[in-house]
Amino acid sequence: MKHMTLEEKIGQLFIIHMYGQTPTDPDYEQTNLNNNRGAKNFEEAIEKYHIGGVIYFNWTDNIGTPADLEQVNALSNGLQEIAMDQRMPIPLFISTDQEGGIVQRLTSPGTVFPGNMALGATRSADLAADSASIIGTELKSLGVNMNFAPVFDVNVNPANPVIGVRSFAENPDLVSELGVAQSQAYEAENVIPTAKHFPGHGDTDVDSHYGLPIINHDLETLQEVDLKPFQAGIDAGIDAIMTAHIVVPALDDSGLPATLSKPILTDLLREQMGFDGLIVTDSLGMSGANVLEPEEVPVEAFKAGNDILLNPPDVELAYNAMLEAVKSGEISEQRVDESVYRILKAKMEKGLFGDPFTDEDAIANIGTESNLAKADEIADKSITLVKNDENVLPLSQDQSVFITGPSAAEPEYLAEQLQSKGFDVTAYATNTSPTQAQITEASEQAAAADTVIATTYTANTNAAQQRLVEALMGTGKPVIASAIRNPYDLMAFPEVDGYLATYGNQDVSVEALARVISGEVNPQGKLPVTIPELYEYGHFLSY
Fold this sequence. Notes:
Blueprint: H1 6-12, E1 14-16, H2 29-34, H3 42-49, E2 53-55, H4 69-84, E3 93-96, E4 98-100, E5 103-104, H5 116-122, H6 125-141, E6 146-147, H7 172-188, E7 192-198, H8 219-235, E8 240-243, H9 262-272, E9 278-280, H10 296-304, E10 309-310, H11 315-327, H12 333-349, H13 369-382, E11 384-388, E12 400-406, H14 411-419, E13 424-430, H15 436-447, E14 451-456, H16 463-473, E15 479-483, E16 498-501, H17 507-517
Parallel strand pairs: 1-2, 1-10, 2-3, 3-6, 6-7, 7-8, 8-9, 12-13, 12-14, 14-15, 15-16
Antiparallel strand pairs: 4-5, 11-16
Helix pairs in contact: 1-12, 5-13, 6-7, 6-13, 7-8, 10-11, 13-17, 14-17, 15-16
Catalytic activity: Hydrolysis of terminal non-reducing N-acetyl-D-hexosamine residues in N-acetyl-beta-D-hexosaminides
InterPro entries: GH, Glyco_hydro_3_AS, Glyco_hydro_3_C, Glyco_hydro_3_C_sf, Glyco_hydro_3_N, Glyco_hydro_3_N_sf, NagZ_Beta-hexosaminidase
EC number: 3.2.1.52
């Protein structure tokens, strides 16, 4: 730090995204410039801004879907090579969002895990740790050394559009137990875990990507519910915590989101809760952060107590704004030194100064048979049988089955899985909000079958899906609903004959659902949330 210029120190505070598959990808130069990356490629960004890290996305083409493992591994090594070649050789944080479930950047041929709420349904800290251990190994094999996971949010709102199944449960003790188990497993693999989204994004009906949610919990509720898992993470020595773009009036009545709030980040998180690790903003490109002028957002986020400014929408503007704030005395160089020290210490403790590279042969550790088997085991143990009137489940081979629902709820893939087990199944996929014509078509096909399965996708907040299920019930045939994402869908049609919660539409979860429906696997998942006025937290049935 003694030898670093102010420009180099400011650069360390930023983790940015760039488009491209290589450090100097010529195909994305214009895209990077057009999208305010402040440079035409990764190499130029490292040289110009001395950035502390990068974040990989699928939409920036850093990681493809499916992933080209050699390409990602080479990209990471190439970036570290450039960083270590600078005047001050400082390794990069190479980060991504690999939560499992609906948020994972490395998909096939990597191991795709059911999400956190599926883990919550298993009630197993061991399985939570196993999944993080495998995710950590696979990320490390690609040169990724920082993961924006686990999610420590306690999901208590059935209408939550952004967290939902990304949360382990509505119970803060279970969230704490599984979150800490995952964090420690990541740390054991030398990947920095990041507990998110502080001070808790679980009770909102607004998505902070597109708006600014307000959490109206009183102090007591915040202590007993939202903050509890974060305190458990701090007590267990977690490396990093990510902020939420949410307003919490009980903690700060200024109307500013937590990301920009000194009372929340410095007074509460640092001083009262005793956290001395890295505080990372959620993406500064999200609507919830953009409540001030663009040049004020990074400066105010830093003044609030953040160490790392993640994903600024305009790299050059954010970098220059921070530089100007220090030069003008608005931010002291001592405050910058505090954050840079934390950043360099984290990089040193993870051994990155000694060797930031990953072996190109390490990709052999990705998507192995035993890793995939562990994902299947978690999925099998997560599927929750909530309702089974007249023992409509498991299905018997002598009945014809019709499956319908939005294509996001994978009715056709579920049908394929059941067909491969010898069942007589037809399927029909609709839009996420089925049209009247699609509802009529589905009802006609349902009338010709013995049993109907409706796969639903957050139907508790989708009136058209509710009309579809009502029309299916109107045929007089037994109807089994399977919620393929949030488990709350039953609130909209409690009269269905059977109900299963799957917690995600990944293939691994749909395949497990087929094994449960066919009777090959006896369901054992327990509800990680209450289905209001219907079923308690912890409810489950088995065959």
